[in-house]
Specification:
- There is one protein chain.
- By secondary structure, the protein is an all-alpha fold.
- Helix content is 65%, strand content 0%.
- The chain is built from ten helices and no strands.
- Keywords: DNA-binding, Transcription, Transcription regulation.
- This is TetR/AcrR family transcriptional regulator.
Length: 214
């Protein structure tokens, strides 16, 4: 007697409202991490997202999981900005400009204290997001360098550090008051990146390996 092979069970797709709630939680967490740092109470994040505490914990079992999701989300959006700049802009340096300003709008500076916190920095999702954004930044810069528009003595690490520093408000100032100056100062940075270089930079170009070195 032949028995029927049981049909493989399909993994149920998340409901649209569940996906919306998750997105609202991540957006609220990102905003509050920027405003108050990564230790903001989770119930405050739930309140801003307009969901219950149980919904937050159903999506993110602990703070590290939520922090990691926010970091990955910001890096994914930054990578998407780099992809759009490469695809839509014929001028190589203009693509770099668009990427730098978009990265600042994502508030990448807020990632620094979170990435240096205690959660697993080698989580596969985090490493994949990091590698994607680093690869795309390098591609944007290589294209500008090959076009003779980017000075030769800078590397990916220089741009990543500068964007993070310039998009972070000075100590003791209101972060949203400082926002109105960010793009002005980023444009000053970008003008300094153009070739031909008008000065000699001290030290050597900062690479990704330099950033990872303890």
């Amino acid at each position: 007697m032949q028995t029927a092979t049981p049909e493989a069970r399909k993994v149920p797709r998340p409901r649209a409202d569940a996906l919306r709630n998750r997105e609202r939680i991540v957006t609220a967490a990102r905003e509050m991490f920027v405003e108050h740092g990564p230790e903001v109470p989770l119930d405050e994040i739930a309140r801003r997202a307009g969901v219950g505490n149980a919904t937050v914990y159903r999506n993110f079992p602990d703070r590290d999981a939520l922090v990691r999701e926010v970091v990955c989300s910001v890096m994914d959006r930054t990578a998407a900005a780099a992809e759009a700049a490469l695809a839509e802009t014929g001028d190589a340096f203009e693509a770099l400009e668009r990427f730098v300003h978009a990265a600042a709008d994502e508030r990448v500076s807020a990632l620094c204290p979170m990435v240096s916190s205690t959660f697993d920095q080698h989580h596969p999702d985090l490493e994949a997001a990091r590698e994607r954004v680093e690869r795309l930044i390098a591609e944007v810069m290589d294209r500008a360098r090959e076009a003779g528009q980017l000075r030769s003595d800078v590397d990916v690490g220089d741009v990543m550090i500068a964007v993070a520093q310039l998009s972070r408000p000075p100590a003791g100032t209101d972060c949203f008051q400082a926002d109105r100056f960010v793009h002005r100062h980023l444009q000053l940075l970008l003008d300094g990146l153009r070739a031909p270089a008008r000065s000699t930079l001290p030290g050597t170009a900062v690479t990704l390996e330099d950033l990872r070195r303890p």
